[in-house]
Design a protein that fits this description.
This protein has four domains: about 1-155, Beta Polymerase, domain 2 (2-Layer Sandwich); about 165-260, cca-adding enzyme, domain 2, CATH 1.10.3090.10; about 280-370, no CATH class; about 385-445, no CATH class. The strands form three sheets. A seven-stranded mixed β-sheet has the order 3-4-5-2-1-8-9. The protein is elongated, with a radius of gyration of 30 Å. The protein has helices at about 10-25, 35-40, 60-65, 110-115, 155-160, 170-175, 180-190, 200-205, 215-225, 230-240, 245-250, 260-265, 270-280, 290-305, 305-325, 330-340, 345-355, 355-370, 385-390, 395-410, 415-425, 445, and strands at about 30-35, 50-55, 70, 75-80, 85-90, 95, 105-110, 125-130, 150, 165, 195. It has about 450 residues and is α+β, with helices and mostly antiparallel strands. Strand 3 (about 70) and strand 4 form a beta hairpin.
Length: about 450
């Protein structure tokens, strides 16, 4: 199944792919839907996109479709546009050796049988004739029919009906061709609720160490797809059962049955950084300050995380510790500041899965504070410009005074801007700001704690 970034309306995408098939058939070529879209339609799911397979070569496709894009002509892959939608069209092929364990060194344009046999898993190696007469349409495993006739050359229909993920042909060969297929197997099994066929699972476990040879970008991309989905906890469990976790995450292997209390209880909409943070906590990492920094740094290197993703993991794990270490002991201003800080909401999502009573109490308090005038993070009544006008020179004490004034605002100790300015005036700062008040000691003594 091709992975596309383009998002289209599924019915329109199907119509566009139908138009491509119709045009190719009209020009005397074989053409059909192929891969994941066939699998998803059989399962009653909405395909994200539709791929077409054909005996027309890339050169022929370029001549048949104006503006065709030769995105992978070496591998027989062309994009064509119909009804305003780009559809990926691939020539039937067989693959040669995979010296880089990612792409074939050479391909031979061939026929549907050879094309099906070079694919990864049987459920992804199905074809569909969308122009078949209705009396020949194929029944779905769950009931009803799919609009077209399925062409099954590798036993994919039986595996789909049985809920089994099986490699096409020799699983060791399929994995040797592209070691990332091990992670793809986990993702498909988790998302579809399928069991990995024993010989395929055994081969994945045997080849687990070969993940080290895959680029960290590709591993990170596959983990993002797994962890951004509601079946993330099952995917994590399968990875651990097959021994893929150590090589993917660059840490020690955790055997099956370690549990995923936090990961399993996250909202279905949780993003990848939150899911990674929860999974690491389940695995016993990031439980203290030193562990937070080490865990985030390791994940960044192992999965090629962006600065934003790395920061989100750090923020989530640190805010969790902030709450656990004494939310109730914070001043009102401190509680508001914490609630408005980066990572607080993800940390609350994690806490809700591991310490529900504590999380509920914190959430009630935050909700009450949010309902106060100005909410959790109101605009500042006094800014740096006001301090400069009052004669303060920018510097460390300047910054502490500014934050202290904001604490007074957040805590309700000052009811309006005028009250804050009066407080500032009482500090008795000399004109142009000497950093000290007349006849007073250092500013630290004037501004108080915070």
């Amino acid at each position: 199944m091709a992975e596309h970034d383009q998002d289209h309306d599924s019915p329109l995408a199907r119509q566009a792919a139908m138009a491509v098939v119709t045009h190719l058939r009209g020009q005397g070529h074989e053409a059909c839907f192929a891969g994941g879209c066939v699998r998803d339609e059989l399962l009653g799911l909405q395909p994200g996109d539709y791929d077409v397979a054909t005996d027309a070569t890339p050169d022929r496709l370029e001549s048949l479709f104006r503006g065709a894009r030769l995105v992978g002509a070496k591998f027989g892959v062309v994009q064509v546009r119909k009804l305003g939608v780009w559809t990926e069209v691939a020539t039937f092929r067989s693959d040669g050796s995979y010296s880089d364990s990612r792409r074939p060194d050479e391909v031979t344009f061939s026929d549907p049988q050879s094309d099906a046999e070079r694919r990864d898993f049987t459920i992804n190696a199905l074809f569909l004739d969308p122009l078949a007469d209705p009396e020949n349409w194929t029944a779905r495993p769950s009931g009803g029919v799919i609009e077209g006739r399925v062409i099954d050359l590798v036993g994919g229909l039986a595996d789909l009906s049985a809920g089994v993920l099986r490699a096409v042909g020799d699983p060791h060969r399929r994995l040797a061709e592209d070691h990332l297929r091990a992670l793809r197997a986990v993702r498909f099994a988790a998302r579809l609720g399928f069991e990995i066929e024993p010989q395929t699972a055994h081969a994945i476990a045997q080849h687990a160490g070969q993940l080290e040879g895959i680029s960290r970008e590709r591993i990170g991309g596959e983990l993002r797809r797994m962890l951004s989905h509601g079946t993330r906890a099952r995917a994590a469990g399968i990875m651990e059962m097959l021994g893929l976790d150590a090589f993917a995450l660059h840490e020690e292997h955790h055997g099956a049955g370690t549990g995923h209390l936090r990961l399993a209880r996250l909202p279905a909409t949780a993003d990848t950084p939150l899911a990674l943070a929860a999974w690491e906590l389940d695995r016993g990492h990031g439980l203290d300050r030193a562990g937070v920094a080490a865990t985030a740094a390791r994940l960044r290197a192992a999965l090629c995380l962006s600065n934003e993703e790395h920061g989100a993991i750090l923020d989530c794990l640190n805010r969790r510790l902030d709450i656990l270490e004494g939310f109730d002991g914070l001043s009102k201003a401190g509680q508001k500041r914490l609630a408005a800080s980066a990572g607080f909401e993800p940390a609350m999502a994690v806490l809700g899965s591991e310490a529900a009573e504590l999380a509920l109490g914190v959430q009630k308090r935050i909700s009450a504070l949010a309902n106060e005038p100005g909410g959790l993070a109101p605009d500042r009544w006094v800014t740096g410009a006001d301090l400069v006008e009052a004669g303060w020179d920018p510097g460390p004490v300047f910054a502490r005074v500014l934050e202290r004034l904001y604490d007074l605002q957040l805590g309700g100790e000052a009811t309006d801007r005028a009250a804050l300015l009066e407080h500032l005036a009482r500090l008795g700062v000399e004109e142009h700001g000497s950093g000290r008040a007349e006849g007073a000691g250092p500013n630290e003594n004037l501004i108080g704690p915070g």
